[in-house]
Write a structure and sequence with these properties.
The complex is a heterodimer of chains A (164) and B (258). Chain A is built from six helices and five strands; from the N terminus they run ββαβββααααα. The relative contact order of chain A is 0.16. Chain A is an alpha+beta fold. Chain B is an alpha+beta fold and 258 residues long. A five-stranded antiparallel β-sheet of chain B has the order 4-5-8-6-7. In chain B, strands 9-10-11-12 form a four-stranded antiparallel β-sheet, sandwiched between helices. Chain B has a three-stranded parallel β-sheet with strand order 1-3-2, with helices on one face. The chains are: A alpha+beta (164), B alpha+beta (258). The interface between A and B is medium-sized, with 28 and 29 residues.
């Protein structure tokens, strides 16, 4: 069985009913998708399947045979953050960070689908199945709206203390 | 996890492999099954995966809509029928709906903490029929009969309903939250001229139910003769009984029957 994971074709040996989450984490050592509730309720395992966000814990690997899978490891370029990642960084949208990969993937797809600026309702709908137990969501929503406007400082500027 | 997994490439092959349904676990989208398998609570010896069967299309034939069992709930959100779209839109969230299927929604066993099968209500109200395979071969029957029967030995292949202009009303009670199951869904449909009233409820018991006494009397209170709400983690039976007549009234009012 083959999958295209972050643009690389991978031959998969896991059993057909293995959740995609465990194929990514255990067989391919791609650990940004997190094993949270593992019953579809928390959103920490969300990845893109052919560009659309889905819960990898609920998806049997055989059901997405041949599909293109994107995780946080496939965003941006080496050493560079994607716009959404940079916005999360600028807006302090992560605390412990466990939920962040799922939220980044879901909102990356949202901005791609909308093709431009998103509003608060769009973000709440897209993140309706994603739990964060640290931030209170306000900074996450702010970050996604800013990312959709392309309103982000470079990683280097933020790291050097320039205002967000 | 060493299940013998079968990958039929047509509906006919799926029906043959399914046989009478004994000792075989059907994987639709897998949103209910995968966590059970991953946690070791379910260990299927033989599993039937349907994603190569071609049953994932929603098509319009001359006078009817035909929904394959593998059509996702997210695809139904875009369906032309308002009640079906609305109920589908309120199941879980879009990420789960992209994996969950209508066949699974109608075939799932009764949930322990919450009720499943929300789509039963709009489909009953639309007068849908279910085509299924199993012992005795293929069968086409009204969805309310399918849901009331023993579904454990049936493989859902397609759901179909007639195309005509309808009046539609719906009302529901739920919280906005992924995995916030319905407390109750009510859907009512009638012909354009107000005839052929069909009313159905889901989310209050193990399966969706057609409300024949409401249809006959047009009295919303009659719903408590039609359904017997249960207690679960989402709501109490007492609460469901208290709100159901109001929800039915709301749905009926939208039909503007005279």
């Amino acid at each position: 069985m083959k999958l295209i994971v972050n643009s690389v074709e991978e031959a998969i040996t896991s059993a057909p009913l293995t959740p995609l989450l465990h194929v990514l984490r255990d067989e391919l050592d791609i650990t940004s998708p997190k094993a949270g509730c593992q019953q579809g309720g928390c959103g920490a395992c969300t990845v893109l399947v052919d560009g659309e966000p889905r819960r990898s814990c609920l998806t049997a690997v055989a059901a997405v045979e041949g599909a293109s899978i994107t995780t946080v490891e496939g965003l941006g370029e080496a050493g560079t953050l994607s716009t959404v990642q940079a916005a999360f960084y600028n807006h302090y949208a992560a605390q412990c960070g466990f939920c962040t990969p799922g939220m980044v993937m879901a909102t990356t797809a949202l901005i791609e689908r909308k093709g431009g600026e998103v509003d608060r309702e769009d973000v709440l709908e897209a993140l309706g199945g994603h739990y964060c137990r640290c931030t209170g969501y306000v900074k996450i929503v702010d970050a996604v709206i800013a990312a959709s406007r392309g309103d982000v400082a470079s990683f280097e500027d933020v790291a050097q203390g320039s205002p967000a | 996890m060493t299940a013998d997994v079968l990958f039929p490439t047509s509906a006919a092959e799926a029906a043959t492999l399914y046989g009478d349904g004994a000792d075989i676990t059907v994987v639709g989208g897998g949103t209910i099954l995968l966590p059970e398998i991953a946690a070791g609570r379910v260990n299927p010896a033989r599993a039937l995966m349907l994603h190569r069967t071609g049953l994932d299309t929603l098509r319009t034939e001359d006078d009817r809509i035909v929904i394959g069992a593998m059509v996702t709930l997210e695809a139904l959100v875009d369906s032309p029928d308002a009640a079906l779209s609305r109920v589908a839109q309120h199941v879980a969230d879009s990420e789960v709906r992209r994996t969950a299927t209508v066949g699974g929604n109608l075939s799932a066993s009764a949930g322990t903490d919450a009720q499943r099968g929300d789509l039963g209500a709009p489909l009953i109200a639309l007068g849908a029929r279910v085509r299924s395979a199993g012992a005795g071969g293929e069968r086409l029957e009204p969805i309310e009969d399918f849901l009331a029967g023993d579904r454990s030995g049936r493989l859902v292949l397609e759901i179909e309903y007639d195309r005509f202009e309808r009046r539609t009303g719906s009302a529901e009670l739920r919280r906005r939250h992924a995995h916030s199951f319905a407390i109750a869904n009510v859907v009512a449909c009638a012909g354009h001229d107000g005839s052929d009233l069909r009313v159905a409820v889901s989310g209050v018991g193990p399966t969706a139910v057609r409300c024949r006494s409401v249809e006959a009397s047009r009295d919303a209170g009659g719903v408590l003769d039609d359904v017997d709400p249960v207690d679960d983690a989402v709501a109490s039976a007492v609460y469901r009984r208290a709100v159901l007549p109001d929800l039915v009234r709301e749905a009926l009012d939208q039909l503007e029957l005279t």
